[in-house]
Amino acid sequence: MKSEDQSGCGWRCVMAVVILITASGCKREEADRGREPGAPLSPEIAAARDAIVSGMQAVAFDELARGHIGSECVVTAHTPPAGPSIDPPPPPLGMVRRLGQTVAIYRGQIESISGGGLTIRAPYPKSDQSKSIEVLRASIESVHVAR
Q: What are phi and psi of 81, to 5 degrees?
């Protein structure tokens, strides 16, 4: 039979670990919470984006033209804390990446460009089908296209 001191110490250690994990996870969420579209990205998110867009050219949304349709692209956009709203079926693996609570990176080909945003398409592996996702202009932080 365990003494009162032994079981209490084990319980306190488990609680300390849970509190430590919870506290360290909450700091990152609070840093992203309430961020306005157009607000600068955190250094960690910017570094992750820069690694993904290596070798691509940054293009302002207003400079996108018909000639960019069909080009490979990476779009960084602000999303609600619940994540981007994407209709079924789910996108192909690697098309959408979440960074933090309010940033998503979309990767694919530019399917169409409009004043309200752009549509990105990515094929499903081993299939002739693809998924298209519209990204609204107001949420777009940056657009990078293949050279």
A: -55, -25
pTM attached to this predicted model: 0.69
**Residue 70 predicted with pLDDT over 70:** yes
Dmax (CA) of the chain: 77
DSSP per residue, 51-71: HHTTTEEE--GGG--GGGTT-
At 44, which helix (H) or strand (E)?
helix 43-52
Tell me what the mean pLDDT of segment 21-26 comes to: 54
Tokens matching residue 82: 């619940």
- The rounded mean pLDDT for the chain is 80
Contacts from 137-141 at CB under 8 Å and sequence distance 24+? 137/61, 138/37, 139/37, 139/77, 139/78, 139/79, 140/61, 140/75, 140/76, 140/77, 141/37, 141/38, 141/41, 141/76, 141/77, 141/78, 141/103
14-21, long-range: CB < 8 A, 24+ apart: none
